[in-house]
Specification:
The chain contains 27 helices and 28 strands. It is α/β, with parallel strands linked by helices.
Length: 854
Amino acid sequence: MQPIRTFNVSPSLPSRLEPLRKLAYNLHFDWNVESKDLFRRLDPDLWESSHHNPVLMLGTISQKRLLEVVEDEGFLAQADRAARQLEDYLQDRTWYKKHRQNQSQECYAYFSAEFGLVDCLPVYSGGLGVLAGDHLKSASDLGLPLVGVGLLYQQGYFAQYLNADGWQQERYPINDFYNMPLHLERNPDGSELRIAVDYPGRKVYARVWRVQVGTVPLYMLDTNIEPNKAYDHDITDQLYGGDIDMRIHQEIMLGIGGVQMLKALGYEVTAYHMNEGHAAFSALERIRTLIQEKGLDYRQARQVVMSSNIFTTHTPVPAGIDLFPPDKILYYLGYYADIFGLPKEQFLGLGRENTGDLSAPFSMAVLALKMATFSNGVAQLHGVVSRQMFQGLWQKVPVEEVPIAAITNGVHARSCVAKSTQELYDRYLGPNWSSAQPDNQLWERMDAIPDEELWRNHERCRLDMVLFVREHLVKHLRDRGASISEVAQAQEVLDPNVLTIGFARRFATYKRATLWMRDLERIKKILLGNKNRKVQFVIAGKAHPKDIPGKELIRDINHFIREHHLEKQVVFVPNYDIHISRLMVAGCDIWLNTPRRPREASGTSGMKAAMNGLPNLSVLDGWWDEADYVRTGWAIGHGENYEDPNYQDEIEANALYELLEKEVVPLFYDHRDADGLPRQWVAKMKDAIRLNCPFFNTARMVREYAQRAYFPASDRYHTLVVDNYAPAKELAAWKAKLTSHWFNIKVKDVDVSAPSDIEVNQNVAVKAKLDLATLTNNDVQVELYQGSIDANGDIVNAVTVTMDYQGQDEANLSVYTANIVYTTSGLQGVSLRVLPKHPYLATSYEPRLIAWAE
């Protein structure tokens, strides 16, 4: 029976408890110990069963319990403290104000297909989403004027369970938005705020929900409403679910709908950040708006959009990029080509690396790169990989100069460090440790933490994890209808006093979740060989529902456990989520990561482990390639790349066993003092904290995004839009002229004063004559490109020297001069190149034009 009317019923709280409502609806509770303890104190069982959802708690807790705590002066005092801490937090975000005193009118929009913020909002799948959530938290900590944009999925990703054979199965619980920390955005008259997005033959409507992340609002679109048709309800049904048509529907809603939503909310956004290519259609909608509402032509509109767009790629392999068939793009988005005044193939070329390949699919990453003024990978090694992947977009630009930067990921410290460990750091390092930079003197206080106190705290964290895993497994087995003996066995898994290795990742095959099982007899000997030096594994993670090889890895692990009777020593924890992650990165002793280098873009779980004092045991890939992997853990291999994957697996599995047998296990067990303390192990824990915590955190990461991307992009936006977009029009016209005449540039002569044999630090004068055709010296920058010569005859490790314009000679050739020196011996070389130059350009590479001397 359908209702004739619906009501949104809010919790009824005694007036004295009203502060709880504000605390519940701001996710600040997730990284504020006082607030989290307050809700746990209110009803510990309900806190756990609600997946730490304070809104659901307040809606279901008994009035009797509420009346009890109204009389509890201790509870009320804690509630008042938590409320004051929230108010102080919301008022005291000063980093941004300190660094942008002269810029008050700006807003940064951060688009992501998923956000992992808290376990009671299961609208994320893994690392990409958790990173996006941590990005918002640190943006709030720093006081950035940032808003998040995403989709609110009715069924989220999926809940994982294992059948009796150890095969991953999926459930899709329905998210009850009205009992989550969500606000439904409304118009002034009280009606729901809605947007309408054009799809072929129809409009699809979406309402807007807001998640308050400290000072940062995250707005999420929901299409599961009338008058949408049933198919359109499902656009925001499942994260990464459905077929290719559903994926393009979702990305239209995220990108195009996200831009429309921000406009409806009244935001004047000055910098747009696309976290992965899923939101790249936002650029098309922004161009359309500028054409139809501001009267710009396509080139002018694209210039404004590109100058204020930022793109972060997380993909280390081409197979990870969203690709759509050309006919799909034209069917769903062809009307944009008409608005832009572009032929269909030129429009499709926006998403193609080779615009002349008319059969090539449309790449969302390529569209994002072509529409961004600043692009980056998420670790230094990933930046190298990304420049190699996308070098074709910048023809003739040396791969090391391809303008894809690297901003290494981080994690939000207060969200991932265990409560007791945070209190320990607060006590000895001070309350600012979570955002302190590497050169802050507080890190020198690490040695002030008594070894025994740090170790006993870690042992408690390990015990907490073991107890949780047992309880979690028991529930899982009972839900599956397992036998009484299986349930009883689950109550005894893991030993809280044994060296515990943690492995928790998305079960993609390149992450090699079973590498440690390659030699079964050898790993069994490590696990069980010495009763006083045992080792145990805690493993968790999900495979995509359609990833059969990934599911097979999970099944193989569970078969290994069962066939070798290792149920107590090796545990697979089903339905990995943020809560399980936090327990594991605090309670394990070692964090294991074995990706096939260089395919791990970053790998943030290892950063979380390090912040809790866990040494990492990992292949040199992603972030670990940048860390001090000698003092803070162990490196598997030396960063080699292999042609033969099977040979690579053999070599690196053996390296893993060697490290466990000869270094990790002995350091943990054999070097203990009279009090049973592994002093050398604790020293490595302290180094893991001291050296990794201040750098691999989102406080540093978001500061870097702000200073390298947000501030410059926002400033460019303000520059280009003044006087009815006059600077944007000028720059677009200049680029059109540049493109028309660029290929007429000729390097006529390069005169190098020195002979072939010179000495280190010898001054070498160079004089060049160029025919700039119809361009002038103000349009170009002429550079000498010098460096050593490699085995292929190419210049490597190059540095550039800008040449000085000396005027024109009698033949109307432009004359440039410069002096160069070589600071190292050996075979060296020099070349000359010409790059575009204009005061409004973000970089010389923006027009994607370069000319070299031949």
